[in-house]
Amino acid sequence: MRKLLASLALSAVAYSGAHAQMGPQQIIPNTNMDSIMPVMRLAGLEPENGTIGEDTRVAILRTATNVIVMRPAVCNPNCVGLEMYAVVQGTAPVSTINDFNMKTPPTMVFTAAGNTVLRRYLIADHGMTAGSFLVNVNVFDNTLNKWRQTLNSTASMSVSVEGPKLGSEAAFEAQNIEFLDAILSRPDLYSTAPRESF
Question: Comparing C-alpha atoms, which of 84, 69, 79 is closest to residue 140?
Answer without folding.
Answer: 84
